[in-house]
Each structure stands twice: as C-alpha cells, then as structure tokens.
Amino acid sequence: MEASFEPKIIALVCNWCTYTAADLAGTSRLKYPANVRLVRLMCTGMIDVKYVIKALLDGADGVFIGGCHPGDCHYINGNLKARKRIQGVGSILESFGFEPQRLALRWIGASEGPEFAHHMTEFVNTIMQLGPNPSKARMIL
Amino acid sequence: METFLKNPKGAHEAVRDLLKGLLENKLADAVLVAARTPYSQLPMPMLIADGQHLEKAVPLLPVAPFNAARQAEALLRQDAGRKLALVLRPCEIRALVELVKLNQCSLDQALVIGLECYGRMENHDFLDKYASGEGEPAASRIDEQLLCTACRTCTRCVPETADLTLATFAGGLEKGIWLQAKTEAGEQVCKDLELGHKDMDPGHRQAVEELKAGRGQADRELVEAMARAMASMEDFQKIIADCINCYNCRRACPVCYCKTCVFVTDVFQHPPEMIFRRAEKRGAVKLPTDTTMYHLTRLAHISHACVGCGHCTSVCPAGIPVADFFKTVARKTQELFDYIPGRDLDEPIPLLVFDENEK
After folding, report:
1. pLDDT tens profile B284-300
2. For residue B156, what are the CA distances in angstroms to B120, B208, B212, B278?
3. What pLDDT is stored for residue B144 in this prediction?
4. pTM of the predicted protein model
5. What would the pLDDT profile of B85-102 be if each residue is shown by its tens digit?
6. Given A54, A95, A139, which is nearest B332 (Cβ)?
7. If you count residue pairs, one on A and one on B, with CB atoms under 8 Å apart, how many are there?
8. I want to staple B43 with a disulfide (CB 3.0 to 4.6 A). Which of A100, A117, B34, B60 is the partner?
9. What radius of gyration do chain A's Cα atoms show?
C-alpha cells in the first residue's frame, strides 16, 4: 500500500505567473511528478476557502496554491488577499487534524519554470512522506 | 459619569423611566428593546415609539430569542431620519460593531445602551420555568447552571463600546439600577436628562472580576474539552452527525451577513449525475450532501468575527453544540489574526487589510 501510494495533488494556480511558469517548465522539457492536477485561475485572490476545503474533504492528498510574488499581482493585491485567507483556513483545518503541510502557498513568477518544477517535486515528496489523506478512507457527511 | 436610577419598583421600572425620558425629551425618536407581546412570556425585540408601550419592556430578563444585532441592523441600514436608542446585550453590541465594520449599517443615528449581562436561558427552559410569569428572576443573578452554555462560559459580559451602560452587576436592583456614561454622547444624554452624578457602588468592580473569573475557568474547560473532542475529521463527523442541513445556525448568526449564502445557490444544487458519481466513487453518499463542507466553510468564512453569542446552538433542532466548536476554532483564528471582534469600531477586520510586507 505505502509503496504504491500515488498522491493526488490539486494545484490552484494564477494565470499570470504560476500557470505561465508551468508552461515554461513544459516547453523547457523540465520534469516534475505527474501527481499534480493544475487548475488555472485568473488570480489567487479569487480562491475562496471552499475550494481548499472541498479538495481535502473529497480526498485530495494535498492542495498547492501558486501565485505572483508580492508586489507583482496583475490585480494589485489578489495574492495578498489569498495569503490571509490561506493562513486562516490552514489554521482551521489543523484544528480538525489535517497536517498543515498538506496545504502550501508559494510565489512562482512567470519566468520561473525551473522553480515551478522544483516546488512541485518538493510538495509531492512532502505528501508522499505524510501518506494518504485520512479523510479518503471514511465517509464524509 | 455614573448615577443611580432610583425606582422603588425595581430595576426594570428604572430602565423604563430612563427610556421614557429619552422619548419625552426627543433624545430618541424610538427605542429598540426586548419587550413582551400580549401573547407570550417570551420577550421579542420591539421598536417602541410611544412611551406607554414601555411597560412591556423587560430587557433584563435572562432570555433572548435572537441576537438583536440583526434587528438593529435592519433599523440602521439606511438613514431613516430618526434617532434610535437601543438596549442591547454585550454580545449584541459586539455583533453590531462587526456589522458596522462590514458596512451593513451605521451608528450615526444610534444611542447604544448596553447592559451588564448575567446571561440568558434557552427559550424553552425559560418558558417551562416561568410560563405563568410568577417568580420571574428579572435582573438578579440566577443559577449559572440554568444558563445556556455560551453564557455560562462568557467573559465578555460587560459592554465594551456602549454609550451608556446599565450596570446590573453593581447590585441594588430592587431599588433601581446603576447607569454609567461611557462616551461623550452618553455624557450628553445624562446632562440633558439632568441625572446627577453619584459615585459608583464600590463593590461593582469586584463583582465584575469575580463573575469573569468564574466564567473564564468554565470557558477554558469547555474549549479544551471541545478541542480534544474534534481533533480529527472522524471525531468531527460524530459531532455533526445529526445535522439536517437546515442552516438555522447560519440564519441565527449575527455576523453571517451575506444576503444570499452560497449554500442555497446553484453552486450546491448539484446535478443528479454528480451525486450519483459521488456515490459510485465512495460506495455511498449521505444526503443532503456537503454537511461537513457547510460547517467548515462557515468556520473559515466568519470564525474571526464570532462574538460567541451562542444563538447557533440555541436554534439547532438536532442539538448540535455549534457554538462550542465555533468558539474553539474561533479562539485560534482570532489569535492568529490578533483580532478581537466587536471590541473597537476602528479595529479593522483582518481579512480586509493586507500589506506586502506582512508574514
């Protein structure tokens, strides 16, 4: 079981930076684990905490959020809003036994293809060590 | 400034005198206060424009069917060209402050009269015990065990931002009630009504401290027990297992202010195929869906603003201790953002301020 664990990762990424970085990683033929499902959003500032909660309750093993570096947001401060909300929801999920490492927020600029591949590899490794999301194994009301 | 509002018939009559004075002297055009309808012993928030109706006002009774901040908001959401005096409990004032910060209403036309609050009983407990109106406890302190859990563990039982405070904890309630002016507007009202200053009952401070200390202990015990009881998602499922998705807790919550909650929109009216797919993926799915999702989302959306009034628990038909887990999570969220809801109108809501350089 442990050996064959293939984590499912939901990555919510900003159109202007992290998604573009993912594109760059692809065109540069960089390798990163195939466990990551990218969801492209116009801005991390549009992430409602529901998205994170839903993913984890429905069995995602980790949620990765990638946005622009502070100061670089296409919409001025969407990434800063995301940072506050993610801090809040992270603390709440922790109260219910979710390991805080299952939720990651990273800044990855449009030109940072290698950084994108690096962060994805690192996050998948972290989740591999944590093991499967325990809420996958039980009925969630 | 402090003064003692004397009335040989007791505290309630003294409060009515004060409110009558406000109306007669045009210091307020109407008063929002808990008062009885002719049909039940349970008081309801009532907007009283004619002083004669004040005889039904019973703001000091240990019962409250609502957090009246929502009723206050309904009266203050636009300028009605009238001045309103409101008699509110501390938790109601805190919620009102949060609603003002959320631009739902304004206190420009409001005179807030807060009361030091011994707590409230659940509606049915109150009605069972005092159905005939006899032996009513009025403002004197009642056995803590009769109070709802939220009030038994409430340490913020003294109004923090009111213009005037009815200091019930100072005692002497059989002969009247102590009044404290806490803002310039409050001082002005006392001047206009020509209430003379009288030094505060020296036992007041100690009474407040003692009550807070006892409740603080009860509060810590509750939060610790709850944190243990919901330490995993499986444990939390047991706590909310009987939830019937009625969303009463959301309606009762004074700070859950969205006009249309996402949980009643199309977002959660899943197409049948999606529900079948969920069942096929997991083997079975409980209907209605998204119960856990609902509670966690509400926690994530507004636990930073939870004022701890406990009305979510009171309205739950399934007996789920919503306020207990809310309080437990809110404690952490409020610590994280270093925020105390309802404390100060000028303290910004943490999710609405952000700085490039913060952590």
Report:
1. 999 999 999 999 999 99
2. 14, 10, 8, 44
3. 87
4. 0.94
5. 999 999 999 999 999 999
6. A95
7. 93
8. B34
9. 15
